[in-house]
Amino acid sequence: MALPLLPALLPGVPAELPALLQAAAGTQRLALVGGAVRDLLLHRVHNDPWRGLPDLDLVLEGSAAAMVQRLPGVVASQEHSAYGTVELELRHGGQTVLLDVATARREHYPVLGENPVVVFAALEDDLARRDFTINAMALLLNPGSSGPVVLLDPHGGQQDLERRQLRLLHDGSVADDPTRLVRGARYAARLGFDLAPEVLLQVRNTLAAWPWSWQPGDPPGQAPSALGTRLRMELELLLEREPWPEAVAALRRWGALQLLDAALQQQPEQALQRRLRRAARLGLPRLPALVAGAADPLALAERLQLPHRHHKLLVQWLALRHRWLGVVEVGQHNGSRSPAGWGAERWSDWLEVPGCSPDAVALELAAGGCVSALEGLPRRPLLRWWSRWRHIQAPWSATALMAAEGLTPGPALGERLRQLRADRLAAERC
Are the C-beta atoms of 210 and 258 separated by less than 8 Å? Predict the structure, then answer.
């Protein structure tokens, strides 16, 4: 299938780009592949989600690194020699384009869920290694820039676009790389597609068989990358750069939240969505809020290798819950489930301790009620502390207080400031 010239198809791409690319590629076959081709056929703009620039994936039947060295206008580049790829930023005629140039390759997975073994191969082999048929099409850039480009579609991607379905390329696709399910949920949410029936069957059969060497309950650090770091990276993209409510709903509908934790898969859809919406409203990142619903949040955080700040947030939140359980137990012993008599001052004293951050309180507000023993605890004081009480200060500064009362820097001054703040808190409605 022949299509018009590349610049006419891709807005924001310099008109001279095809000629520059072909000159650098020489006689070796070069093709535009992946999401740019898919979105072109869907009449959608394909830009990098972080920078908003045109973002093109190219495959060359030859050395990508050598081609990039011959390409003018490169302002930054990073080579990944193990996979024969080079990421680069190209600037030409006042326009900037992000390119990912890859040597055509074939992949196989000797260990399911781990990174693949790569063998450099032909363009058709490269298309066959991809996740979904809608991403396994290529625009072959013919030598010279005067002719049309030719669409290669060996796996029926155009038909699946018309059917609005996501179809994997082979029966072992999920077992090889389960992160494909998260990418599929991203496409489902972004494009309004769903899994083809035979793919949904593959997903459910694979998850039921759990073919990976790592099993839930094993040491988190032993999980393969597709159940660990690469899974986290895909989830970050899903939660921060996609219509995440639809994407999370798709994962749950397919049973794929089991890749994270069985408790997450079993959690009611409404509760899961509510926790993520509340977290975002309270200024929290969604990923630790998602992890908070796991049976063992810290084990899942370790497996995904969450950033230190997210792991610390979960530790503080769990410590807060542990302290709350102590309050519940004391209340039950005294015949009352909650500290109903606490005022703003008492709540502030209880919350403002080392190791208890405002974000930990916000996470409890977002996750509230997902541990049954805590469902009866009052949530209104937490919200009032988070939104108002923690911001209340003593009416006088330390300098003004020293001048007015003759105090000097030291414990007595600090205690006086705390007392003045406590007086203001005592006047707050709980």
Answer: no
- Taking each helix axis from N to C end, the angle separating 358-367 and 269-281, rounded to the nearest 10 degrees, works out to 150
- 9 and 158 fall within a common domain: yes
> What's the rounded Cα separation, in Å, for the pair 316 and 296?
14
pLDDT (mean) for 66-74: 93
Phi, psi of 195 (to 5 degrees): -65, 140
Query: Can you spell out the DSSP letters for 66-127?
Result: HHHHT-TTEEEEEEEGGGTEEEEEEEETTEEEEEEEEE-EEEE-SSTTSPPEEEE--HHHHH
Per-residue pLDDT tens digits for 156-184: 999 999 999 999 999 999 999 999 999 99
Q: Which residue has the tokens 């869920």?
A: 113
| Residue range 264-295, pLDDT digits in tens | 999 999 999 999 999 999 999 999 999 999 99
Residue at 291: amino acid letter: V
- Checking if the pLDDT of 68 tops 70, the result is yes
Same domain, 18 and 114: yes
State whether 362 and 406 are in the same domain: no
Tokens 């006689």 sit on residue:
27
Last residue within a domain, chosen from 243, 259, 275: 259
User: Do strands 194-195 and 149-152 pair parallel, antiparallel, or not at all (unpaired)?
Assistant: unpaired
Residue 111's pLDDT is: 96
Give pLDDT, residue 8: 57
Q: Using the 3D structure, point to which of 148, 163, 178 is the last residue of a domain.
A: 163
Please tell me the predicted confidence (pLDDT) of residue 406: 66
268 and 254 together in one domain:
no
56 and 133, same domain (yes or no): yes
Question: What tens digit of pLDDT does each residue of 398-424 get?
Answer: 677 666 676 677 777 767 777 777 778
Question: Are 239 and 280 found together in one domain?
Answer: no
- Domain range for 343 is 260-391
Q: Exposed e or buried b for every residue in 101-139, given b needs 16+ CB within 10 A?
A: bbbbbbbebeebbbebebebbebebbbbbbbbbbbbbbb
